[in-house]
Amino acid sequence: MSHNPAPAFSTTDPERHPLRLPRGSIRALLTWLILGIVAWDVTRPVPDGDHGKQLDVLWSECLIIALAGYFTSRRFVSLPPDVLAKLEMEGVLARDRSVFHGPLMRLLLVAAFAGLGYYLYHHGRLLESKATQVLGLASAFLVGAVTRPILAWLFKGGGKRWGDLWEDAKAISALMAVLACGAIQFAEGPAALPEWATSLTVWLVLFYFGSR
């Protein structure tokens, strides 16, 4: 009878993560690298008269996508500790014990953006176009994520109806803002829409996604 040794690595092994690092390590590293690139682009010295230069949109969008993995809500089922431990032992659920995949990572990201904002304010560069772009995008998303648990607590129980109204109002506002911007750009062209209107619409949409 031939003996086939078990493979050293299985793609279905829930305990094996990329490079055998703790769960979330690669995503955390990539997020910090992207944040570093964006922070460098925002804070680097620029020639006189060039303060209106826009931030590279690819990096800013990439940063928002990375943040989404940490601040968007996920569906979950609350299980008793003994059932959860049993499922983890059987490999059905992955053990989630890494500091790179929890509240600490969110806190560090918020602190990083706060530090970036303070630096720009201290050097009188907070209102530069690139600064308002990246901080506005990130702040809208983060504010939405922070207000979500607060409002969920306020609207629990008898306040559920108000919570439903709040969710509907957010959805309608985001949809109407995007539709209005789209209609104006389609009818008059992108130049017809003020920059502040576009920014406000994007911030509103990101606030909605962050609060979900």
List the helices and strands and how they pair.
Layout: H1 25-43, H2 57-71, H3 81-89, H4 103-122, H5 129-154, H6 160-188, H7 195-211
Helix pairs in contact: 1-2, 2-5, 4-5, 5-7, 6-7
Briefly say what this structure is.
The protein is an all-alpha fold and 212 residues long.
Overall description:
With 212 residues, the protein is an all-alpha fold. The chain has one domain (18-45, 52-211). 64% of the residues lie in helices and 0% in strands. The protein has 7 helices and no strands. It has helices at 25-43, 57-71, 81-89, 103-122, 129-154, 160-188, 195-211. The chain is globular, with a radius of gyration of 22 Å. The termini are far apart. Mean pLDDT is 75; it is low at 5-14.
Described by strand count, sense and barrel closure, the largest sheet is: none
The N- and C-terminal alpha carbons lie at a distance of 56 Å
Class from helix and strand fractions:
mainly alpha
Low-confidence stretches: 5-14
Helix share bin:
55-70%
